[in-house]
């Protein structure tokens, strides 16, 4: 048997929704992909994910090695292919 995808549904307020839509547009990915990325990260790190504003992240990275959070840059074609799966 294969691994079946499940659907998660929940409500957010209108302001949060608009912010999420802006994040998706900024990354040039779908709104669903924003959530999948977050869920994948959350599961991969056993729920130990810390959300840090970008400006604070840059301060944390100064003078330290990049141990957390891990970042990987991938081409947009990879993301598009991943979204189709």
Describe the structure.
The chain contains four helices and no strands. It is mostly helical and 85 residues long.
Approximate strand percentage: under 5%
Major β-sheet profile? none
Mean pLDDT: 80
Calculate Rg over CA atoms. Answer: 15 Å
Total of DSSP H or I helical runs spanning 4+ residues: 4
Helix content: 40-55%
Based on Cα principal axes, name the global outline. globular
Helix vs. strand class = mainly alpha
Order of helices and strands: HHHH
How many strands? Answer: 0
Low-confidence stretches: none
N-to-C CA distance: 17 Å
Short description:
The protein is mainly α and 85 residues long. It contains 4 helices and no strands.
Topology:
Layout: H1 14-27, H2 31-44, H3 54-61, H4 76-84
Pfam families: DUF8146, RHH_1
InterPro entries: CopG, DUF8146
Protein name: Ribbon-helix-helix protein, CopG family
Task: List the defining traits of the structure above.
mainly alpha; 0% strand; 53% helix; single chain; Ribbon-helix-helix protein, CopG family; globular; 85 residues
């Amino acid at each position: 048997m294969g691994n079946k995808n499940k659907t998660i549904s929940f409500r957010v307020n209108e302001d949060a929704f608009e912010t999420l839509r802006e994040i998706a547009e900024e990354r040039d990915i779908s709104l669903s992909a924003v959530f999948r990325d977050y869920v994948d990260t959350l599961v991969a790190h056993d729920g130990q994910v810390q959300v840090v504003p970008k400006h604070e992240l840059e301060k944390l990275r100064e003078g330290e090695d990049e141990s957390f959070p891990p970042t990987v840059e991938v081409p947009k074609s990879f993301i598009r292919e991943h979204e189709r799966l």
